[in-house]
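Appendix B, Record 12. Input sequence as logged:
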Amino acid sequence: MKCKYCEIELSDIDIRFGDSPEGLYMKGYCTDCYNRKDWIEENTIAIKSRDYWFKVLGMLSQNWALIDEQEGGKFKVLFINDHSNIFDELEFDSEDKAIEGLKRNDFERYADDKESQKFIPSPRPPFTLDEIMKEPKYSSGEFWK
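Logged structural output:
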């Protein structure tokens, strides 16, 4: 059984949260998501794609990107930090143009880099949009070629 939000496998401890004094039963949430589920429900952005792109910024720090098809045939690149917070976005006329932009700005496709997959975990859903975390690093043009 997986958590409804972050999709990690639930442990017996997560499933049997009813052992607590409050007698709560989590009904499919891991402990972390259960403790902040109201906030998650208010701030979650649905992203269909799980085809991650990533850019290593330094020791233990990456920026992640997912390309999500929008209505009208446009494609939005959503930039995500290691903690699954969406911090910026760019819109493109096609998926090919989005991929070109990512490659031009030193993003690599995660699925193609088996070595990185061994030690760099990708962010997990739920992906949240928190106004405090927004940083227009790429959409401002400052770090986008």
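Residues 45-133 form one domain.
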